[in-house]
């Protein structure tokens, strides 16, 4: 909704992108105020209708549809074999996107026919979208009312838009699918999880900071915090360092392509696969060793060690090795391309000045690939913070090897302890926060330059 | 890529220009020689060796007869070679859970391919709007979406799951009753939606960076010819952004194919992907490394093929997005 209001109040400084609609001549301040007023009144009406709906006692509780719904489509699709489902769902999705693009293309044009097209679309789309959700009978009348008012607001705001009619319409069609997905899938869950972290197991009784105290005092919670810190400090730095070194070593060497593939291959292997591969390396048993690590230890006359139950910290470090092994390829591929983009003249100039290979690397190459380095480090760091699979497959969090993201799922699935799980999620969120803030700053700087 | 290349206009005659060029080539050759010195090559080979050995060990094991793998290390194969394909047959047909590996292989395909295309389409639409449609709060919303990467996947799982299964009911008024997909044989809908949602922030960010770099003149010209946003997007942006789309497709394919957590939470038991089957089988197989190894290589095969097919796009598209600056 903010989109509508924002576009309403936008000063006409920006050029109308598809300004073949109505000219922006009636954009006087008074007309602008009227538009704003109408939109605000409309929104208030929507909110009132919504409140009215949720305070009505349920009369009848049966789902209502227009004869078809998302649910019936998914049931029909689910009955087919997986391989048949792929083309079918793609065709349906393609048709929806195609329709969207057709509307975006034709609706903004000026003319009587296009006017009616816009009007019809503004009402049809919200109604269709709400009805696909199968609202219960007691809600239908209100849901339809809300849909119709929303359609009317959209059409009116679009018609009065400074950039010409159709401008807002196409903007919303472009942005709506992603915006809806993000709202229901990320924004809404993040907010509910935050509130849940202050409630107990069942989510009914307010417990204040008890879940957070549990996180830092209970052994599982405590180790998950410590281990996550180890992961996020070691994994990105080591993976990036090795990836960078390797990229420099093989730069312009013979067979560079094949040498790259060798390092990159682990990145394409799932963490489950990687976990099995490394469990085999760390394998421990009585008698002859199958795992190469213990085979080396025994070959030097040592006692075989059960690596993955060796605590504290040894098993965690061995898990971090798996992650580094897997992510170095990504670091290497990106950094290698970045190194090639550093202008060779700079390197030559430095060499003429008598700089050694190491000095050239530190003073020319590294500053030249700085932004790539930041991207690689943060990507791997965020990956390390959210790591789940490696721990789940290799140790299952036993012997103090648990991490935040794993313990979160563990508390949820095994102990049904949603409060603890939510508190762990919020702690993880706080760990990711500085990384994102740092990156956002970088992006803002870049966008200012542009 | 905005490189800060400074072009110096030479004010010298042709002969000395040739001389300079020759010198430059000589220096370049010297620089190359020094960068790829013996030490560096050896170090690279050592790294490559350590990176390959774990995979190689399991790869060998997957072809060794089961009884051999239980008693001797894989390195003994060099002195006592014997190979078989039996492990792969056994692994594909055995199922610790309700599914065999072969069945869950199909499930993985049915999860991954639609997700990649859905995510690309939806993300490129909004990325185009961010790049080429002017609206107030454009920067704010763009950065907000980028910052949504902050939300850990795990944090969103439970609320999303309850939305899918129980729907949205406020004060006994049910606006959305949830999906009733019990008893449906192969239902991937919830997995698709969940994966697409989690892919959004990064997809929008990377694709926007690429789409925003398409020269404004190209788009202006199309507009003058009477094309609206719909045509520009479909006929111009999609083909021009192909490298970025391909590189994100590879990345997303690898991630979704290799995902364990999202599928475990959202997929019904008959629709579980390869990673989940492999994980549970690895528990039941326990120390039977010949089965685990064969199963692992079956799961690695597809992402590797995808990567090799599309790898020439991979770096190009990713870099335009990732390392602007």
The main sheet of chain B orders its strands as: 1-2
Summarize model confidence as the mean pLDDT of chain A: 80
Could you tell me the radius of gyration of chain A in angstroms? 29 Å
Low-confidence parts of chain B, pLDDT < 50 over ≥5 residues?
A: 1-12, 321-325
Helix count from the secondary structure assignment of chain A: 19
User: What is the multimeric organization of the chains shown?
Assistant: heterodimer
Portion in strands of chain A:
under 5%
Summed over residues and divided by their number, the pLDDT of chain B gives a mean of 78
Explain how this protein is built.
The complex is a heterodimer of chains A (450) and B (325). Chain A has 450 residues and is mostly helical. Chain A contains 19 helices and no strands. By secondary structure, chain B is mainly α. Chain B is built from 14 helices and two strands, in the order αααααααββααααααα. Chain B has a two-stranded antiparallel sheet. The radius of gyration of chain B is 26 Å and the shape is flat. The N terminus and C terminus of chain B are likely disordered.
């Amino acid at each position: 909704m903010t989109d509508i209001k924002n576009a309403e109040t936008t000063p006409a400084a920006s050029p109308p992108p598809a300004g073949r609609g109505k000219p922006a001549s009636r954009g006087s301040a008074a007309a602008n105020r009227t538009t704003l007023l109408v939109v605000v009144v409309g929104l208030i009406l929507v909110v009132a209708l919504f409140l009215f709906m949720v305070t009505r006692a349920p009369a009848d509780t049966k789902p209502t549809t227009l004869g078809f719904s998302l649910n019936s489509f998914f049931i029909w699709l689910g009955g087919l074999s997986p391989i048949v489902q792929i083309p079918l769902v793609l065709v349906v999705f393609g048709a929806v996107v195609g329709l969207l693009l057709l509307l975006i293309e034709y609706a903004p044009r000026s003319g009587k026919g296009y006017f009616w097209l816009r009007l019809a679309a503004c009402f049809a789309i919200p109604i269709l979208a709400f009805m696909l959700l199968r609202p219960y009978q007691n809600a239908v009348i209100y849901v339809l009312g809300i849909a119709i008012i929303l359609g009317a607001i959209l059409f009116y705001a679009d018609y009065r838009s400074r950039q010409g009619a159709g401008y807002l319409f196409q903007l919303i069609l472009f942005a709506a699918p992603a915006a809806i997905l993000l709202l229901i899938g990320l924004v809404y869950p993040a907010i509910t999880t935050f509130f849940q972290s202050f409630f107990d197991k069942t989510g009914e009784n307010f417990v204040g900071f008890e879940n957070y105290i549990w996180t830092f005092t209970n052994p599982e919670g405590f180790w998950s915090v410590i281990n996550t810190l180890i992961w996020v400090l070691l994994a990105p730095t080591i993976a990036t360092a090795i990836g960078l070194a390797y990229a420099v070593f093989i730069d312009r060497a013979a067979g560079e392509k094949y040498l790259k593939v060798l390092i990159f291959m682990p990145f394409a292997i799932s963490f489950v696969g990687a976990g099995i591969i490394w469990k085999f390396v760390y394998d421990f048993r009585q008698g002859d060793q199958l795992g190469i690590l213990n085979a080396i230890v025994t070959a030097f006359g040592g006692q075989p060690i059960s690596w993955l139950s060796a605590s504290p910290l040894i098993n965690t470090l061995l898990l971090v090795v798996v992650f580094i092994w897997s992510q170095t390829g990504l670091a290497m591929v990106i950094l290698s391309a970045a190194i090639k983009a550093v202008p060779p003249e700079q390197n030559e100039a430095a060499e003429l000045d008598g700089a050694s290979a190491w000095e050239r690397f530190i003073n020319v190459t590294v500053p030249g690939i700085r932004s790539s380095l930041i991207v690689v480090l943060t990507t791997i760091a965020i990956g390390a913070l959210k790591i789940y699979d490696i721990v789940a497959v290799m140790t299952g969090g036993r012997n103090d090897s648990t991490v935040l993201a794993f313990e979160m799922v563990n508390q949820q699935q095994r102990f049904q302890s949603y409060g603890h799980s939510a508190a762990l999620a919020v702690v993880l969120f706080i760990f990711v926060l500085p990384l994102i803030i740092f990156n956002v700053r970088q992006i803002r700087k870049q966008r200012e330059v542009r | 890529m905005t490189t800060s290349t400074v072009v110096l206009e030479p004010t010298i005659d042709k002969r000395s220009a040739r001389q300079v060029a020759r010198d430059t080539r000589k220096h370049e050759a010297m620089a190359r020689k020094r960068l790829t010195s013996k030490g560096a090559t050896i170090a690279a080979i050592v790294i490559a060796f350590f990176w390959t050995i774990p995979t190689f060990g399991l790869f060998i094991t997957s072809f060794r007869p089961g009884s051999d793998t239980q008693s001797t290390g894989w390195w003994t194969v060099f002195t006592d070679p014997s190979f078989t394909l039996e492990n792969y047959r056994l692994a594909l047909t055995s199922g610790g859970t309700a599914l065999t590996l072969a069945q869950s292989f199909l499930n993985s395909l049915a999860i991954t391919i639609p997700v990649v295309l859905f995510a690309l389409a939806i993300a490129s639409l909004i990325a185009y709007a961010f790049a080429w449609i002017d609206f107030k709060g454009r920067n704010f919303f763009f950065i907000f979406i980028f910052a949504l990467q902050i939300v850990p996947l795990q944090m969103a799982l439970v609320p999303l799951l309850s939305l899918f299964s129980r729907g949205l009911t406020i004060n006994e008024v049910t606006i959305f009753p949830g999906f009733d997909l019990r008893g449906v044989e192969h239902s991937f809908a919830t997995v698709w939606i969940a994966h697409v949602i989690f892919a959004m922030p990064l997809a929008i960010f990377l694709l926007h960076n690429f789409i925003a770099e398409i020269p404004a003149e190209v788009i202006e010209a199309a507009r003058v010819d009477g094309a609206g946003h719909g045509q520009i997007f479909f006929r111009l942006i999609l083909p021009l952004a192909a490298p970025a789309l391909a590189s994100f497709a590879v990345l997303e394919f690898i991630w979704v194919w290799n995902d364990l957590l999202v599928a475990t939470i959202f997929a019904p038991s008959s629709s579980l992907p390869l990673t989940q089957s492999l994980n549970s089988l690895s528990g039941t197989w326990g120390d039977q490394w010949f089965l685990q190894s064969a199963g692992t290589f079956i799961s690695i095969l597809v992402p590797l093929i995808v990567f090799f097919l599309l790898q020439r796009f991979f770096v190009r598209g990713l870099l335009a997005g990732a390392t602007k600056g």
